[in-house]
Amino acid sequence: MEIIIFAVIIVFVFTYNQTIKPNKFVKDNEMYILMLKEKDYDFYVYSKYGDAVEPNQLFMTRLRNSLCIFAVILILFISQLSFINLVVALVVGFIMYKQQYISLKSFYKKHLNKIDQLLPYYLKSLEILAQNYTIPVALSRSIEDAPIIFKKGLEEMVSKIDAGDSSIDPYMEFSKQYPVKDSMRMMRLLYRLGLGEQKNKYEQLLVFSKSVSSLQNKAREMKYKGRLANMEKRTMVMLVVTGGGTMIILLMSMMMLFGV
């Protein structure tokens, strides 16, 4: 224990004197550290917090906290350190590391319908812009009024297109980054619309518009079904509570009647 305390003091002194610079180490190796981040982590962060939280900073805090937990457990077991204790420390640290990601994913699944509804309404506004501009320009102009959850992905997609990438890859990367319902299919349609000749643009826009309208109808239907299910659940709870209350009152009345 004395050795641990001494080591902590030494590390603190070196850090205080800037002999050891943890922040510089993290900054220099941030690119490699962020490779540990799940591919859909940013999407889940934006779906819950919008642009109020920066995903990379949140991930670094998450990683730091899990490492601290691992270190604390290791210190507690230092006097009787064994392979089993080391495995326990690693498992607890890993659980703490994954806990935030699981929580974010759970939030997304809980609000899945609401988040899925953002895409068709965004595409509708994009469709209006596409009537007067090319697809890359329409995408660029749509960013300002786009749902917060899509903004970073749209900026990256537009940047790749402006850099000369005329393939479908920027569109597919966006759909993978934001795996909301029908995003991949709609991105393919959008890419084809961008490839079309100006003389055929009206027909292609009509096809795209019908797809967007169909998507909006599905979103409204899901929203209605969600509300209906919620009302049915509340009605069932009220019936159970009312029935249970009635049974208790009848039972109490019978007990009083028979003097039990």
Q: What is the element layout, followed by pairings?
A:
Blueprint: H1 2-16, H2 22-28, H3 30-33, H4 41-49, H5 55-76, H6 83-110, H7 112-116, H8 118-130, H9 135-142, H10 148-162, H11 169-177, H12 183-195, H13 201-257
Describe this structure in words.
- By secondary structure, this protein is mainly α.
- It is 79% helix and 0% strand.
- It is built from 13 helices and no strands.
Features:
single chain; 260 residues; mainly alpha; 13 helices; flat; disordered N terminus
Shape: flat
Please report which band the strand proportion falls in: under 5%, 5-15%, 15-25%, 25-35%, 35-45% or over 45%: under 5%
Number of strands: 0
- From N to C, what is the helix and strand string? HHHHHHHHHHHHH
First-to-last CA distance: 67 Å
Q: What is the tally of helical segments?
A: 13
Oligomer state equals single chain
Rounded to an integer in angstroms, the radius of gyration calculated over CA atoms is 28 Å
The percent of residues in helical segments reads over 70%
Structural class: mainly alpha
Mean pLDDT across every amino acid position: 76
